[in-house]
Amino acid sequence: MQNIEGVDKKKQAQLLDPSGARPPLSRSITTTLNPSARSEVLLQAKKNTILTSHGRPPWYGEDGKHLSEAFVIGIAGGSASGKTHVARCIVQALGSIPTVVILSQDSFYKRHSPEDLKLAFANRYDFDHPDAIDMPLFASCLADLKAGRQSNIPIYSFKDHQRLDETKYLYGASIIIVEGILALHDPELRSLYDLKIFVQCDSDLMLARRIRRDVHERGRSVEGVLEQYLRYVKPAYDNFVQPTSRYADIIVPGSDNTVAIDLIATHIRRKIDDRSSYLRERLAKIAPRDLTPGDCYDQYFPNLIVLPQTPQVRGIFTILRDRTTPREDFIFFTDRLSTYLSEKAVEFLPFKPRTVTTPVGAAYHGKELSVEHVCGVSILRSGGPLEQGLRRVIQDIRMGSLLIQSEVHTGEPLLLHSMLPVCIRQRNLAQNSYVFLLDAQIGTGAAAFMAIRVLLDHGVPQENIIFVTFIVAACGGVRVLQRAFPRVRIVCGAVDPVLRESWALWDTPPPQEAKESEPGTPGTPTVKTKQEAEAEGRKVWVVEPGMGHIGDRYYL
């Protein structure tokens, strides 16, 4: 199994399907299709792929706004010149880098009329002319991805010569590679590229590759391929494709291009490093540290809603905080507390008047939910214990998930996987959706910050996000969350006063700040220095009194 940095083996198994293939960062929208249509969708969807490595680090600052856009590379060249091969070689040469999207021009062919379809099946339609491409849609989708928003890419069937109704959902790219014969033709597209590449290849080699590809992958005949090549492909290359090489920053050979690939990968790595953002430690230390449980938190956190500390609630927390509580009791009272929190959170959904007739024939003037779409998103896996309570309060609620884990050495959050409901994946629906974001606690706020930013990137308004959590650390990142996202509501069960800096080690004593370790006597473990501990562990922040690792206590 390929190792995923920062994820233990058990959680790696959750990320991999039985075949061992890692799922994409986000799932595409699916509809009911017959098997042959489904295979066609999968064939064409491979042209637009999401390749993940060690996850996506923060792409925003402490104010919640994007620090930088995705790095976009445009790769043009003749048909079958090796553009896709060059794109994948660049990804391979980059090694351990954030999420990469390979976006193909082939998906943006215009929807054809019946007359166009007749010409296409007779090999008389010019697919290589710029007018065959929906350039405005191409530029719009690329602009969304570059700006950090999600996009739904059309899927084109080469066998049917038609754009399909299904789309491919893409989100979360730090690097976008656009490839197509006319990738450098449109000025609006060129303005979106940070690096422009033209792949130069011998005409005979391109023709041989095209024949092999179209016969085996697209069901064409050799005669049809040759006729189309002579009638349309070669003239288009001379008139439209080859002239765009003057816009390229670098021209790469279509074969034996190892040196060029290494130079490009080095340049990209340097640009990505320049855009890196490290926030977690600043989030942990920016808020005041002198609050006590008796303070009034409203003046510090106006959108933080805490459950009334009734004897019943305090009794539940006493059971949950007790390290000796049996697991079955912990699960029971966790579900009970999550139900209370969900009931409180639902109060912030919009309601409208409704009159009903009671069983005795009287009219009752009440309320009903006035929400077009409502869903839940759990931050894996500590958000899982809150799902049962939410389902008890809102029947058949649609659930999604985000896998956000800390990078081993820096402690920075990494977005490793997302599976969001359809009402979030489509921007026109997300604007009218309410989302319950679930996580066990807010300490530094790094994971919460990233999850909220993901929802905002999809078009969910701040005021439609309700964060539900068991515990909030008053001296942690909650104040930064409130500053960056002032209209996001946070519903919690308790506010803990302490966020303690600690060190997560594997069979390693904590680092010593004041002095180096003294040689131990025989049989006595040697205390490691801070430098030695840093090499073997990572810095963490612990909420006190806290509830421990809630996900581990609930599931293990």
From TrEMBL:
<comment type="pathway">
    <text>Pyrimidine metabolism; UMP biosynthesis via salvage pathway; UMP from uridine: step 1/1.</text>
</comment>
<dbReference type="Pfam" id="PF00485">
    <property type="entry name" value="PRK"/>
</dbReference>
<dbReference type="InterPro" id="IPR029057">
    <property type="entry name" value="PRTase-like"/>
</dbReference>
<keyword id="KW-0547">Nucleotide-binding</keyword>
<keyword id="KW-0808">Transferase</keyword>
<dbReference type="GO" id="GO:0005524">
    <property type="term" value="F:ATP binding"/>
</dbReference>
<feature type="domain" description="Phosphoribosyltransferase">
    <location>
        <begin position="308"/>
        <end position="501"/>
    </location>
</feature>
<dbReference type="GO" id="GO:0004849">
    <property type="term" value="F:uridine kinase activity"/>
</dbReference>
<dbReference type="GO" id="GO:0044206">
    <property type="term" value="P:UMP salvage"/>
</dbReference>
<dbReference type="GO" id="GO:0044211">
    <property type="term" value="P:CTP salvage"/>
</dbReference>
<keyword id="KW-0067">ATP-binding</keyword>
<dbReference type="InterPro" id="IPR027417">
    <property type="entry name" value="P-loop_NTPase"/>
</dbReference>
<comment type="pathway">
    <text>Pyrimidine metabolism; CTP biosynthesis via salvage pathway; CTP from cytidine: step 1/3.</text>
</comment>
<feature type="region of interest" description="Disordered">
    <location>
        <begin position="1"/>
        <end position="31"/>
    </location>
</feature>
<dbReference type="InterPro" id="IPR000764">
    <property type="entry name" value="Uridine_kinase-like"/>
</dbReference>
<dbReference type="InterPro" id="IPR000836">
    <property type="entry name" value="PRTase_dom"/>
</dbReference>
<feature type="domain" description="Phosphoribulokinase/uridine kinase">
    <location>
        <begin position="72"/>
        <end position="254"/>
    </location>
</feature>
<dbReference type="Pfam" id="PF14681">
    <property type="entry name" value="UPRTase"/>
</dbReference>
<keyword id="KW-0418">Kinase</keyword>
<dbReference type="GO" id="GO:0043771">
    <property type="term" value="F:cytidine kinase activity"/>
</dbReference>
<feature type="compositionally biased region" description="Basic and acidic residues">
    <location>
        <begin position="1"/>
        <end position="11"/>
    </location>
</feature>
<feature type="region of interest" description="Disordered">
    <location>
        <begin position="508"/>
        <end position="535"/>
    </location>
</feature>
<protein>
    <recommendedName>
        <fullName>Uridine kinase</fullName>
        <ecNumber>2.7.1.48</ecNumber>
    </recommendedName>
</protein>
<comment type="similarity">
    <text>Belongs to the uridine kinase family.</text>
</comment>
<dbReference type="InterPro" id="IPR006083">
    <property type="entry name" value="PRK/URK"/>
</dbReference>
